[in-house]
UniProtKB/TrEMBL annotation:
Keywords: ATP-binding, Kinase, Membrane, Nucleotide-binding, Serine/threonine-protein kinase, TPR repeat, Transferase, Transmembrane, Transmembrane helix
Keyword presence, Kinase: yes
Domain Protein kinase residue range list: 34-339
Membrane-spanning ranges: 274-296
Organism the protein comes from: Pseudidiomarina planktonica
Any one GO BP annotation for this protein: signal transduction
TPR repeat start-end pairs: 512-545
GO molecular function (one): ATP binding
Gene3D superfamilies cross-referenced by the UniProt entry: Tetratricopeptide repeat domain, Transferase(Phosphotransferase) domain 1
Name of the protein in question: non-specific serine/threonine protein kinase
Its EC number(s): 2.7.11.1
Enzyme class: transferase
InterPro entries linked: Kinase-like_dom_sf, Prot_kinase_dom, Ser/Thr_kinase_AS, TPR-like_helical_dom_sf, TPR_rpt
Length: 1009
């Protein structure tokens, strides 16, 4: 909420902040609402007052930003966003943030007024050990809540921690607005600042943890009593270890909050270890007994050692009675650990689509057995002889169609419902195996089928009732566990479902259907490693299952193993679907081929596969799927520059989606229209379409699709230079994806956010985020590439040239391994820029040669970036020629739609290297798009200007970013008394972070200046 002062003068876009040396008088009224009653505290960046809210008739704390300079509107907007983020926090150990206000004179926000004394005051009086544990846990809880919301406190110290009359800790005075102040002064000691904060001024969750360690140190030193009792010596040592672990010099080697909490609980846990251990054993025994009460003496333990035999059952599927017998037989076979009976639906689909009649032809039997990969084929048919009705049973072995059993049952002597018993006895005798106790009661199979049907109709209550009936019958443990697993998975209790299936698989270890179910559960919980393992085992047991091949391919594609998935699993799925003439399956897999080629940046191949998929995904047979594939085709066409074709595909998709009233389909189309605009450089139009897609998905879409749209909206804001909005959207997406545990898209979103943080100069936050991504065990190769690319940019920005070069080499290698041409291009462009910046001309030219081979695949932004690098190449040999190229280049680029990020970077670099006249259009454009938020472009822009004010602003920026790689060059151009000394210091620091090859090249450049 922003409130304006109601004076007659209009509000300025620049607001005068309160000067650090002056204070508000008692009785001062702010925003015609808050009456100042008392100064509570002040520091270099703020003043905190007790104030009376005349509207709500209550006291509040009021914090006024005090920076020593006027606040621009962009800085005010940044402050507002910080307050909006902080006010989301609701926790008993965190002060409540209320509202943000901007008047013509002041910028401030209000908070809850916490009564009590500061921890600093409590420490002076001395505290007890139990208070230390209690307060430290509360402090850690508070910080954990902040950090999980991606909020950094930034100023944790005893003075900013209140202890209420009830002895409860409350964390107050967030460091909102600290980044707007002058660089942190470290001449005076501030013992609670982490080393990296003293060096760069940037705070992070890791620096909060460092400060918490310092606070714990202070608490331990303030323990009341002259001596620590011997019984507390080990207690104190453990707390000291926690404090030391929190204060590790390296931010990412500091103890996590979770680890600190575990260590705090260590004493209580160690005392009760024996008791808990004993109770645990008793509980295991009791739970085990309870779980067996439904099953009598049966257990699901004792895995079978024998290999699994695959059996397919064929029948005349237009004969309902024969189908019932076949289903009963297939279901009853499922409890045999050594047998895997294929689903009847799979056999029926292949028979019908390929006109196979196993009862009439040996060739058809061989063909069917080969297609479904069965070792035994059981064929049921109806015969009439001499006026009698018979059920004929034929069992053959593959390969070769060797007849094992050829017999028939006279229905005058046998009931249909009893036949499965005889069939299974015959099968087991052929396999020479003992028979497990069978369930011949038709109602057992009927109950299980009813459970499955109820779940398909989302009737969980009915399914639970049916499962209870199944348990009451004291049936085989197999049926009960299958039912429990189905019900748990349907409810979303995937962990419970996994546990039930794991238990079942101990007795049925080689069953492909169970392995595939287990793989699906692992995928549902984003355990891609286990999902891949189980699906690989499933297709090894039953290679005929096209859908399992498809699921395995999908997992490998998500993990970044795209090319192997294309050449093996996805191809296998397509072959299996084609063998069974499954139209729906072929359309599905061909669409997946297109998506995979899109991810490989092979857009022409992607468009071909999408077009092939549309042959099967017709408007009559699969209209919703056609909308999806048409939208995907438009993506490939747009990226290739076929904008009219893309628009035509989207128009057709829209017609179909409207006819279906498919709102999610319409959202997909709007999303792809956004991409179409983005590819043409029309970013405002792209934003409009992406926001429309987001609006629809927020109404009817699932969280995954919503996060996808949020990501797109954020990225366009980023390209337009709206960093605050981009960050807000990206952090929203990260929260949603973390809740969903949607790892692949989460990593993509996090690397985008890290890119933004690097451009804004928020290095500590970027480093923390990239570190978090790299520590994830489920990191795909694509995400790994993106992470190393951003790590390289982060490290180079801070003068760590050697590490940056190693990072980008790793990124290039990954991009080539996954054969992603766009990734190769992005990494080579950055590698070339690093080489140009370090004046490593041989390496620079080698990278340009590699890029020249890819130039036909460049998008608009990459082409402009490449042409800028060619000017850098000319500059190294002929400045006059390079100047002419730069003038022509600027004139051309000014006529093109480009992202502000690209424009700001390239134009600012050029004006820092060439003297352009004031009437050159580049100056007007830079004035429009460059702001201090783009610290690198802003510094280059300032260095190109010939004015005292620009020099002063540049000096301020250099002090704010002391580790920046180009500081030597900028300091050398300034004429202040100490700038030569600073230039030398920056140069030596830069040298210390280079490898020998880099240093030699840069030394040559320095000596030529």
């Amino acid at each position: 909420m922003v409130q304006d002062d109601s004076r007659s003068t209009p509000m300025n876009t620049v607001t005068q902040s309160l000067q650090g040396g002056s204070f508000l008088a008692k009785g001062t009224l702010l925003a015609e609402r808050f009456k100042i009653t008392e100064l509570l505290g002040h520091g270099g960046q703020a003043q905190v007052y007790r104030a009376y809210d005349q509207v709500l008739a209550t006291e509040v704390a009021l914090k006024i930003v005090s920076t020593g300079h006027q606040l621009a509107q962009s800085e005010i907007d940044s402050l507002r966003n910080e307050v909006l983020l902080a006010r989301q926090l609701s926790h008993p150990n965190i002060v409540r943030i209320y509202e943000f206000y901007q008047t013509s004179d002041y910028v401030f926000f209000t908070m809850a007024l916490v009564s009590g004394n500061s921890l600093a005051a409590a420490l002076e009086q001395g505290i007890k050990p139990e208070q230390i544990d209690y307060w430290v846990k509360q402090l850690l809880d508070a910080l954990q809540v902040c950090h999980e919301a991606d909020i950094v406190h930034g100023d944790v110290k005893p003075a900013n921690i209140m202890i209420t009359a009830d002895d409860e800790l409350v964390l107050v005075d967030f460091g909102i607005g600290k980044h707007l102040a002058e660089p942190i002064q470290t001449a005076g000691t501030n013992e609670f600042l982490a080393p990296e904060v003293k060096e760069s001024g940037s705070v992070s969750a890791a620096s909060d943890r460092y400060a918490a360690g310092k606070v714990l140190d202070a608490m331990l030193n303030a323990m009341s009593g002259d001596k620590t009792p011997s019984r507390l010596s080990s207690w104190r040592r453990r707390r000291q270890h926690i404090a030391i672990g929190l204060q590790h010099p390296a931010p990412y080697q500091r103890l996590s909050i979770a680890a600190c909490k575990d260590l705090l609980e260590a004493r209580r846990s160690s005392i009760s270890n024996l008791v808990i251990g004993f109770i645990g054993v008793v509980l295991v025994i009791i739970v085990g007994l309870l779980s067996l009460q439904w099953y009598g003496d049966e257990t699901a333990d004792g895995a079978a050692d024998s290999a699994t035999t695959v059996i397919a059952i064929s029948t005349e599927f237009n004969d309902a009675e024969l189908v019932d017998i076949a289903e009963m037989t297939q279901l009853s076979l499922q409890i045999q650990p050594s047998i895997y009976a294929l689903e009847l639906s799979q056999v029926q689909r292949i028979q019908n689509n390929l006109a196979i009649v196993p009862s009439d032809s040996s060739g058809d039997r061989e063909r069917l057995a080969k297609l479904v990969n069965s070792q035994l084929l059981l064929v049921l048919s109806r015969r009439q002889l001499d006026g009698s009705n018979f059920i004929h049973l034929l069992i053959t072995e593959s390969p070769g169609d060797r007849v094992l059993v050829n017999t028939q049952f006279d229905l005058a002597n046998y009931k249909l419902s009893t036949l499965p018993e005889f069939f299974i006895e015959i099968i087991m005798s052929q396999l020479d195996q003992d028979l497990e106790p069978l369930e011949y009661d038709e109602s057992v199979a009927s109950l299980f089928q009813s459970i499955d049907q109820a779940l398909a109709q989302d009737n969980k209550e009915k399914a639970e009732q049916l499962l209870a009936q199944l348990k009451e019958r004291k049936v085989s443990v197999f049926w009960v566990l299958r039912g429990e697993a189905l019900l748990a998975a349907n409810k979303g209790n995937f962990e419970q479902a996994k546990q039930v299936l794991d238990r079942l698989m101990k007795s049925y270890p080689n069953r492909p259907d169970l392995l595939a179910e287990r793989g699906a559960l692992a995928f549902a919980t984003n355990d891609l490693t286990d999902a891949k393992k189980f699906y690989e085992q499933a297709v090894a047991g039953d290679p005929s299952q096209a859908m399992w091949w498809f699921e395995l391919a999908k997992i490998k594609i998500i993990q970044g193993d795209i090319r192997p998935a294309l050449n093996n699993e996805l191809l296998q799925a397509l072959v299996k679907f084609r063998q069974s003439e499954d139209v729906e399956g072929q359309g599905l897999v061909l669409n997946a081929f297109g998506v995979a080629h899109l991810r490989l940046a092979e857009f022409s191949a992607a468009a071909d596969y999408f077009s092939q998929s549309l042959v099967y995904r017709t408007a009559d047979l699969a209209p919703a799927e056609r909308v999806t594939t048409l939208s995907n085709l438009a993506t490939a066409q747009a990226i290739e520059g076929n904008y009219l074709a893309a628009d035509k595909s989207l128009n057709e998709a829209q017609q179909v989606a409207v006819g279906l009233n498919d709102r999610l389909g319409l959202a997909h189309i709007e999303n792809e229209r956004g991409l179409l605009m983005e590819e043409q450089g029309f970013y405002q139009e792209a934003l409009r379409y992406y926001k429309t897609a987001l609006d629809i998905r927020l109404q009817v879409g699932e969280s995954y699709l919503q996060s996808q749209s949020i990501n797109h909206v954020a990225f366009i804001h980023f390209l337009l230079g709206d960093f605050s909005l981009a960050e807000v959207y990206w952090r929203q997406a990260v929260d949603v994806l973390k809740d969903m545990e949607e790892v692949a898209v989460l990593h993509s979103t996090q690397t985008n956010l890290a890119q933004l943080l690097v451009i804004r100069g928020q290095f500590q936050q970027a480093e923390q985020l990239l570190s978090e991504i790299l520590s994830d065990n489920d990191l795909s190769r694509e995400a790994e590439f993106a992470t190393y690319l951003q790590l390289s940019k982060l490290n180079f920005a801070q003068s760590r040239a050697n590490v940056a070069a190693e990072n980008i080499s790793t990124a290039i290698a990954i991009a080539k391994q996954i054969t992603d041409n766009r990734a190769v291009t992005e990494s080579l462009l950055w590698a070339a820029e690093i080489a140009a910046n370090l004046h490593q001309m041989e390496k620079f030219n080698n990278h340009l040669s590699e890029l020249d081979k890819l130039v036909t695949d460049f998008n608009r932004e990459q082409r402009v970036y490449y042409e800028w690098l060619l000017i850098r190449k000319s500059l190294a040999s002929d400045r006059a020629e390079a100047y002419g190229e730069a003038v022509a280049f600027i004139g051309k680029v000014l006529e093109q739609p480009l992202s502000r990020i690209t424009e700001a970077k390239i134009f600012s670099d050029l004006v820092s290297r060439f003297d352009f006249p004031e009437n050159n259009g580049v100056w007007a454009r830079l004035e429009q798009i460059v702001s201090p938020a783009m610290y690198e472009a802003y510094m280059a822009y300032l260095s190109g200007q010939d004015s005292t004010s620009a020099e002063q602003s540049l000096l301020t920026q250099l002090e704010r970013y002391p580790q920046y790689w180009r500081n030597y060059e900028y300091f050398s151009e300034l004429s202040y008394d100490d700038t030569k000394k600073r230039a030398s210091s920056s140069l030596q620091r830069f040298y210390s972070r280079m490898n020998d090859e880099q240093r030699q090249a840069y030394e040559k450049f320095v000596s030529s200046r």
